[in-house]
């Protein structure tokens, strides 16, 4: 089988066991992709037919560049597909959600229990006067009520705007105001590393200048010491659902009605409220959950993302529940009380599919393989990665130490804006470390120049998507001009803003954001590429690279490096690292400076904020740092 795969370049690749392909929902990738190309609307129609519509759509797609409408005329409710349908179709007593608190507290919901809780909260929200189209801000820790609140909004057609529970008051305030939220759902505390962290001050500050807010619903967790958040507007979560009915008919939603807004940071300016709709988003996330993770009835699926991010929206909540899967959610941090906590969870619950981020994988690499090696990980069958380039070193480690060389890794490229996974190596296909893969069936991804012309294999360019897809963003909330920019930058394409390179076999390697590009002496160098080279040295745990203006070369490269615990900083090691990059990438990519550091500025979702490093280095104002982790 291996010899059929000719990558033309000299990349190393891994062939998954043929049984993966034989038993997958997808079958043969190329055949599925050709079927899509032959009849794109027919392809998406078949997927959408697997879901329930109160009224069938009359058209699969209407494309009026740059505006798309999907499944027009169709009426549905995503919670009907996530809950009612599963309860009715034999999954009534199947476990929907296993939640584990930091202190080991466990809560388990069957589909029927989740269904009832969602309806109660939906009825509670109705009591507060929330109706279809109203915006509800959800600012919560990773507890079941976070998911239940999202689904409750969707049940009654309210538009949720989930704000990651680690954001500070100013970030929360601007998001509440941006969406003009009528209700904020929150909690009194979150637990982190054995401590309870109150939300009180953040909430109080965030709602001072937020005239749209009428109620603040507070989930009390510290029952012994009740904290008041904001007395006049405050409603107790449990009071809200005390005397309500357990039945709440799903609102009949038009396919193009908004389902949620999710704020994401733009490369400049205020965060953008990305708008996703009911029908297309439902179809896109259902489809990818089914085919990319190849979820089967008995899988135990764990996506470690917080539902405060798009990964949590699409692959903790909506996609997996629409598939009727068993999902896992934890509130704790991955290295508390010790770095084996995740692996103990895998062993205990028999996790079969694990989806996480490269930053977590690299952290575990740094901490050492003795932690996962203590646990039985043999239930795992598919591993996933998302959020940033999975550098070959991290891929190899994930593949070997966690997957025991037998689990396919799906390195999934996508964005808040795309709503669903777009580029990956489908389960069963040959995997090349460092390369995310190809467009999934349904997605036309390409690497092009500024004019939109495909670039040759091995040449860097801009990653683009050529045709609309169901779960694409429909607009930027109250700022359609910013939406149009996505489609106006590169002729005929949706410009994602990432740099990428394709190999001869069509595999795409994402190099990093276009704005992270460094031009050194006329050569384009992706920060991710240099970082990946540094991380491939045995002494390096993590690296971040920036461009520094230089009179001679335009820019020079500066690298910030976190060493593994086994190594200490020295001039000799610096030289060795420079030599290593020179050998790996060539002299042009060699940093001019290396600084050893203890930590790197990161967003709360784990992305390195090179902009902040650069500003600090150049003594400039770092700009908006509301997404920066403390
Ligand atoms: O630069 C790409 C990177 O994350 C960006 C999207 O960020 P966000 O909207 O926060 O969504 C993250 C979770 C989907 C992309 O433009 N990115 C995401 N996945 C990958 C990636 N870069 C490389 N490889 C990936 N698999």
The helix/strand class is alpha/beta
What's the CATH superfamily of the largest domain, by name? ANL, N-terminal domain
DSSP summary: helix tally: 19
Approximately what portion of the residues adopt beta-strand conformation? Answer: 15-25%
Distance between the termini: 49 Å
Could you give the count of β-strands? 32
- Backbone shape: globular
Could you tell me the CATH topology label of the largest domain.
Answer: Rossmann fold
Query: Which CATH top level class of the largest domain fits?
Result: Alpha Beta
Radius of gyration, Cα only, in angstroms? 24 Å
Average pLDDT over all residues: 91
In words, what does this structure look like?
The protein is of the alpha/beta class and 630 residues long. The protein has three domains: 18-77 and 258-512, ANL, N-terminal domain (Rossmann fold, 3-Layer(aba) Sandwich); 101-251, Rossmann fold; 521-618, GMP Synthetase, Chain A, domain 3. The protein has 19 helices and 32 strands. Strands 12-11-8-6-7-14-15-25 form an eight-stranded mixed sheet, sandwiched between helices. Strands 5-4-17-16-18-19-20 form a seven-stranded mixed sheet, with helices on both faces. Strands 23-24-26-27 form a four-stranded antiparallel sheet. Strand 4 (95-100) and strand 5 (106-110) form a beta hairpin. Helix 4 (78-91) packs antiparallel against helix 5. The chain is globular, with a radius of gyration of 24 Å. It starts with 17 loop residues before the first helix and ends in a 12-residue tail after the last helix. 53% of the residues are buried. The protein binds adenosine-5'-monophosphate-propyl ester.
């Amino acid at each position: 089988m291996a010899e059929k795969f000719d990558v033309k370049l000299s990349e190393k690749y891994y062939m998954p066991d043929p049984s993966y392909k034989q038993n997958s929902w997808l079958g043969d990738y190329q055949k599925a992709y050709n079927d899509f190309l032959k009849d794109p609307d027919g392809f998406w129609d078949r997927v959408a037919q697997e879901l329930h519509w109160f009224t069938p759509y009359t058209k699969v797609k209407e494309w009026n560049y740059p505006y798309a409408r999907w499944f027009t005329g169709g009426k549905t409710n995503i919670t009907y597909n996530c809950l009612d349908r599963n309860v009715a179709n034999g999954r009534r007593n199947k476990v929907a959600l296993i939640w584990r608190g930091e202190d080991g507290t466990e809560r388990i919901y069957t589909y029927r229990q989740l269904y009832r809780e969602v309806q109660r909260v939906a009825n509670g929200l109705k009591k507060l006067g929330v109706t279809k189209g109203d915006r509800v801000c959800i600012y919560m820790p990773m507890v079941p009520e976070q998911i239940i609140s999202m689904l409750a909004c969707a049940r009654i057609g309210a538009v949720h705007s989930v704000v990651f529970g680690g954001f500070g008051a100013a970030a929360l305030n601007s998001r509440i105001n941006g969406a003009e939220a009528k209700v904020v759902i929150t909690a009194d505390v979150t637990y982190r590393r054995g401590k309870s962290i109150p939300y009180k001050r953040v909430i109080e500050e965030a709602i001072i200048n937020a005239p749209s807010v009428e109620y603040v619903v507070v989930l009390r967790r510290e029952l012994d010491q009740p904290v008041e958040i904001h007395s006049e507007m405050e409603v107790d979560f449990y009071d809200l659902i005390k005397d309500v009915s357990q039945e709440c008919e799903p609102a009949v939603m038009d396919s193009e009605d908004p389902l949620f807004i999710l704020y994401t940071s733009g490369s400049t300016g205020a965060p953008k409220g990305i708008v996703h709709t009911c029908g297309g988003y439902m179809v896109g996330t259902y489809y990818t959950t089914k085919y990319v993770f190849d979820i089967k009835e008995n899988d135990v699926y764990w996506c470690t993302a917080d539902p405060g991010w798009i990964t949590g929206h699409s692959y903790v909540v909506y996609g997996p529940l629409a598939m009727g899967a068993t999902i896992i959610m934890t509130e704790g941090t991955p290295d508390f009380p010790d770095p084996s906590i995740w692996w103990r969870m895998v062993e205990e619950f028999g996790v079969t599919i694990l989806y996480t981020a490269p930053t977590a994988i690299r952290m575990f690499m740094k901490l050492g393989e003795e932690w996962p090696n203590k646990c039985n990980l043999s239930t795992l069958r598919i591993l996933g990665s998302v959020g940033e380039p999975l550098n070959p070193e991290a891929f190899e480690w994930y593949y070997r130490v966690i997957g025991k060389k037998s689990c396919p890794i799906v390195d999934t490229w996508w964005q808040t804006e795309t709503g669903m996974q777009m580029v990956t190596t489908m389960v069963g296909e040959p995997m090349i470390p460092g390369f995310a893969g190809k467009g999934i069936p349904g997605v036309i991804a390409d690497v092009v120049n500024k004019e939109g012309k495909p670039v040759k294999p091995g040449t860097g360019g801009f990653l683009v998507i050529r045709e609309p897809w169901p779960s694409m963003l429909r607009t930027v909330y109250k700022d359609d001009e910013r939406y149009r920019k996505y489609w106006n930058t590169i002729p005929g394409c949706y410009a994602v803003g990432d740099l990428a390179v394709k190999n001869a076999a069509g595999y795409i390697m994402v190099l990093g954001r276009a704005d992270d590009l460094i031009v050194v002496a006329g050569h384009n160098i992706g920060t991710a590429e240099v970082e990946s080279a540094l991380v491939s040295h045995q002494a390096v745990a993590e690296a971040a690279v920036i461009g520094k203006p230089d009179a001679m070369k335009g820019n020079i490269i500066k690298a910030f490096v976190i060493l593994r615990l086994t190594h200490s900083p020295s001039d000799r090691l610096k030289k060795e690292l420079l030599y290593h990059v020179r050998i790996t990438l060539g002299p042009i990519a060699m940093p001019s400076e290396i600084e050893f550091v203890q930590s790197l500025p990161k967003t709360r979702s784990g992305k390195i904020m090179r902009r902040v490093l650069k500003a600090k280095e150049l003594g400039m104002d770092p700009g908006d740092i509301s997404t920066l982790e403390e």
